[in-house]
DNA sequence: CGTTACATTTACGTCAACGTCAGGCCCTCT
DNA sequence: AGAGGGCCTGACGTTGACGTAAATGTAACG
């Protein structure tokens, strides 16, 4: 009576197991499937996520962290398992996208830093004001 | 016959003058009015932006740079000219919001930096791969 | 057989800050 | 009178990544 509950230790995961493993919602997985980012196999109507899906999802989430859009990610993923021969060219392409994204991120960071500096300056000004007003209203 | 074209050097600006002065579109100004961020006076159906509107818009744009939502900005602006007496309390409130926003920005920057670092690492890995593949395919 | 507990599909809703028409008024120059 | 220009209102469209609701299925437990 081995408690073979979910997917019986096979190397496929149910949607719930997948969600728990990656901290995403079922909606997200279905959404990704619809967007052709994942291709779970079907047992009747249910989805079973393979090792390949898990690898892809890991890459998807990593890509998201870097700010790539799902569409970008899909293209990269597609490229890699469409023709597993043009390795160099593919890596090249990936590399270019990464470089572009990287400079975007750095620029964004710089703008953010500028804004932070400015906001701090404004706040320093605000502190003066507060002090002044406090003196004025002192008992 | 002074060529009194737009608003005749008075201290009100037409929508176009306002747009040119602040580099925004008419749509934006109308939108801000609808959102109760600006209150241009009406000459018939046309808008005339006063000095007060200009001051507010300046603050709005500054706020946006800091990542405040229009709704946040509206509340702050409202607060300031609803009761022009609670200066200290208002400044206090503004200060709190600014502090909160500041830490959000700093966190965001940190996450971005982390992602940048990670992406760079990935890219270094990619370079190795490219080099390896290049050797393999060398003539 | 009934209930519980997930699963599925379909499709509309969300959020922000505007963009983009479409249609119409009013004034001015020619 | 016609053409042109600027301004107006009103309302739908955009973008991305899902959330959420409704109706249905189906598998297993008891």
TrEMBL record, chains A, B:
Family annotation (Gene3D superfamilies): 1.10.1660.10
PROSITE patterns associated with the record: HTH_MERR_2
Family annotation (PANTHER family): HTH-TYPE TRANSCRIPTIONAL REGULATOR YFMP, REDOX-CYCLING DRUG-SENSING TRANSCRIPTIONAL ACTIVATOR SOXR
Domain of life: Bacteria
InterPro entries assigned: DNA-bd_dom_put_sf (IPR009061), MerR-type_HTH_dom (IPR000551), MerR_fam (IPR047057), Tscrpt_reg_MerR_DNA-bd (IPR015358)
GO molecular function per UniProt: DNA binding; DNA-binding transcription factor activity
Name this polypeptide is given: MerR family transcriptional regulator
Organism: Gemmobacter lanyuensis
Keywords: Coiled coil, DNA-binding, Transcription, Transcription regulation
Record CDD domains: HTH_GnyR (cd04776)
Coiled-coil ranges per UniProt: 88-122
Pfam families, A to Z: MerR, MerR-DNA-bind
All residue ranges annotated as the HTH merR-type domain in the record: 12-79
SUPFAM superfamilies: Putative DNA-binding domain
């Amino acid at each position: 009576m081995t408690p073979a509950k979910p997917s019986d230790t096979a190397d496929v995961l149910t949607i719930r197991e997948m969600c728990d493993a990656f901290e995403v919602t079922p909606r997200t997985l279905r959404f990704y499937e619809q967007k052709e980012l994942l291709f779970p196999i079907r047992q009747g109507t249910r989805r079973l996520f393979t090792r390949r899906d898990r690898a892809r999802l890991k890459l998807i989430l990593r890509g998201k962290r870097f700010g790539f859009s799902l569409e970008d990610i899909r293209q990269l993923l597609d490229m890699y398992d469409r023709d597993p021969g043009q390795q160099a060219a593919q890596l090249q392409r990936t590399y270019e996208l990464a470089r572009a994204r990287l400079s975007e991120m750095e620029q964004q960071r710089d703008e953010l830093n500028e804004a932070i500096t400015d906001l701090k300056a404004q706040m320093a000004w605000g502190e003066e004001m507060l002090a002044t007003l406090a003196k004025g209203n002192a008992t």
